[in-house]
Amino acid sequence: MAEIQIKNVAKTFGSYQALHSIDMTISDREFMVLLGASGCGKTTLLRIIAGLETPSVGEVWIGDKRVDHLPPRQRGIAMVFQNYAVFPHLTVFENIAFGLRMNKLDDATIKERVNRTANLMHIEQLLQRYSGQLSGGQRQRVAVARALAMEPDVILMDEPLSNLDALLRLEMRAELKGVLADSNTTTIYVTHDQVEAMSLADRIAVMHEGRIVQANNPVEIYRNPAAHFVGSFIGNPPMNFLNATKGGKGKWNVAGKSFSGPQSGQENLEFAIRPEDVTLNGGGLDAKVRIVEPLGAHNLVTCDVDGSLFRAVIDSDSKVKAGEHISLAPMQDRIRWFDPQTTLAVA
Amino acid sequence: MTTSSPTVAASQPQKVVDARKAGSMVFAASVFLLCAWVLVPIYFLLVNTLSSPEEVAAFPKTFIPPFNFGSLEFFAGFSGIGNALKNSALVAIVTMIMSIGVGAPAGYALSRFEFRGKAAFRILILMTRAFPLPLLALPLAVMFIRTGLDDTIIGLAIVHTTLALPFAVLITFSLFSGIPVELEEAAWTLGCNRVQAFRKVVLPLVLPGITASAIFAFVISWNEVFAASVLTIENRTLTAFLLQSLDVSPLHLKFAGGFVLVVPALIFIFAVRKYLFAMWGIANR
Prior knowledge:
The complex is a heterodimer of chains A (347) and B (285).
Chain A: E1 4-13, E2 16-26, E3 31-35, H1 42-50, E4 57-62, E5 65-66, E6 77-80, H2 92-102, H3 107-120, H4 136-149, E7 154-158, H5 166-182, E8 186-191, H6 194-200, E9 203-208, E10 211-216, H7 218-223, H8 228-233, E11 240-246, E12 251-254, E13 257-260, E14 268-273, E15 278-279, E16 285-294, E17 298-305, E18 308-315, E19 325-330, E20 336-338, E21 345-346
Parallel strand pairs in A: 3-8, 3-9, 6-7, 7-8
Antiparallel strand pairs in A: 1-2, 1-4, 4-5, 9-10, 11-12, 11-14, 12-13, 14-20, 15-19, 16-17, 16-19, 17-18, 20-21
Chain B: H1 4-11, H2 16-49, H3 53-57, H4 70-77, H5 81-112, H6 118-127, H7 133-147, H8 153-177, H9 181-189, H10 194-223, H11 226-231, H12 238-246, H13 251-271, H14 273-281
């Protein structure tokens, strides 16, 4: 049982506030991804959970034990580092056995566990090698095997795939997901790669400037961003945003067209729509096409709508050319609204 | 004679292959010259040491040493030489232990912790080398006499440690900086406390470098003559002893003395040359 509770955790480095009162509960066996651009505090939060940083204020609970005053070795965690941190003076076998030896397990158990995790990560033929004789992908496998061998309650991963090349990353991603699902541990995984986050996570916590902006399952994060930032960060290409002015009675004027939106007292809102949620039908937003990028499965069209940048994903059969005027009709049920002051979503 | 060959090759009309050949000959010649620069004096030292007193003064020289051990035998029988040798070794060993004992933790702290005035501290370490020893020797001697540290092994070792310490700190600083902090952090998450992580992960990785830096401290102490001459009277180290006695000795004994002084340092450096290379190479791992 390893539920993780983070209560009002904040961290300051000198005058710089890296984390602002984070509250989060990660349930047992959940795969939680901390997602955000570099410098958003996601790694700091992970290191606080690991015990490699101490929080300036707040509490960290793992299971039913408060751990924020404990050193890493007493927290029941294992961590996988971005640059693997495989010990260069030990063989792969001794690397995986390192934590087990520290826990004073007997030799037979150590051998059994090392072999089992090595098989799991497909590195059984590398056990007698040293780190210098391994490729990046193999080192990553050793690092994961070393963490798994500890059979920890919690596995923490700090951008474990970011140093691998693209193809290997894809392969390792799928493999990690399988291995971690079978291992029955709670996982916290830090990444700046949204595709990685979407594909791995049970739940994503999107972080921005030291705060968790939204924590929810991947589909919900994608469909219903809680704030402007989430919409603009998640999705490739990201959401389109246009200014909306009040037209009375839940009607809002966007680029000369009227859309039904929330009953709000405000004069202005932000209208948002994902690029794939528009169709090439008449009566939509008037758009002047700037660039057409054929991407095989579909075409990415970059246009100018009412002076703002607007991207649309349309069928690759369409004959739209740069310079033309087209009509882009948003799907009514996919339109989202944001408050321009608070940047939060308005229902 | 050695420099003339590339010149001849360069003066002839040639193809690219010849130019490359000439280049490698220039390289070979430079290597030869540099080696000769170091080895020829040592060789003459050897030849003269192994010559009889008459042959030392004679001209022309033979290039094959006559293997006359008279000078060395006389030297070995010289009263006090064994004692001086022992003192030198003791002072060098104590210097080695103290400069690594103090220098390595300082190097570790510099590489791992952020603290106020860190940059100034690093400059300050180097600054200790900016004061010429002769300037400090007199006040030091007075102070040592007052505290009773004069003419002792430990007293001289303290002075030698101050000389060796900046190198020890800076070399170990770069050694520890070459070990990614993640390796230590990984060890902490795998059940180590700070000390265990240091012992099981950092120490094995820096040990060759530490050894080299220790040898370096040893050689600094072994070769040091000024402080040794000023601060010791009865318990002279080899350098101070030789400086004192050889000043008034005949030429062949001077050669023998120089030989005895140079050879241990050479042998020592030769024995640990692998580690000395590792000292610079380890940061790249």
